[in-house]
Amino acid sequence: MTETKKILIAIPSMDYVAAGFAGSLATLGKVGDCKVSFVCSSLVYDARNKLAAQAIKLDTDYILWLDSDMTFEPDTLIRLLKDIEDNDLDIVSGLYFRRAHPYTPVAFKKFDIVNGEAVFEHYNGELSGLHKVDGVGFGCLLMDTQVVFDVFGKYGDCFSPIAKVGEDLSFLWKARQLGYETWLDCDIKCGHIGHVVVSQGFYEVLNDGGES
């Protein structure tokens, strides 16, 4: 990672962000030339489309997507970028869990759109290591900006939802049609802020101890 990289830290949000997120962002280790951009909108896909357009206009190398209800470690960006550069990846996410029951990983082993209908298989694999998946959320995800450029060029739009699924999975489905793969690094742990901060430890306690 000797060459200076241009990275947009892209954050869609409502009118406020969680205090835990603000603390994580303040201590996030930066790499190269990093810019932080917030776009506030009640429509998440609209905010993401505007952030994607900014990344292209700024001629960035990468986009780090962060949701404003996440917590993450200071070395998160450094490790995601290392994943991409060491393994020649285009899209890689950290591991986080749903913030409400069921507290399962926000990842899908299989995801496709068949005859206009979404078909899912939730990820229930190992919670360590790097794994290829069909879909993840955009809570903590690094991607090569070329992916956004290519999706926009093919579809004329990046994040508008299709087949009644969220904007994040809609984007990744479009990217997969262009040959891009999505990876999940389960060693990069993130928290999801709800009534509690949902972490891997929280998930494992529930999984081992039942729902009582």
Describe the overall structure:
The strands form 2 sheets. Strands 1, 2, 3, 4, 5, 8, 10, 11 and 12 form a 9-stranded mixed β-sheet that branches. Strands 7-6-9 form a 3-stranded antiparallel β-sheet, with helices on one face. The protein starts with 5 loop residues before the first strand and ends with a helix. The model has no long low-confidence stretch (mean pLDDT 93). It is built from 6 helices and 12 strands. By secondary structure, the chain is α+β, with helices and mostly antiparallel strands. It has a single domain, classed as Alpha-Beta Complex (Spore Coat Polysaccharide Biosynthesis Protein SpsA, Chain A).
List keywords for this structure.
212 residues, alpha+beta, Spore Coat Polysaccharide Biosynthesis Protein SpsA, Chain A, nine-stranded mixed β-sheet, three-stranded antiparallel β-sheet, 12 strands, 32% strand, globular
Quick summary:
The protein contains six helices and twelve strands.
Total tally of structural domains: 1
Calculate the mean pLDDT score and round it.
Answer: 93
Q: What is the string of SSEs from the N terminus onward?
A: EHEHEEHEEEEEEHHEEH
In this structure, how is the largest beta sheet organized? Answer: 9 strands, mixed
Coarse morphology: globular
Strand runs, count: 12
Counted by DSSP, the helix tally is 6
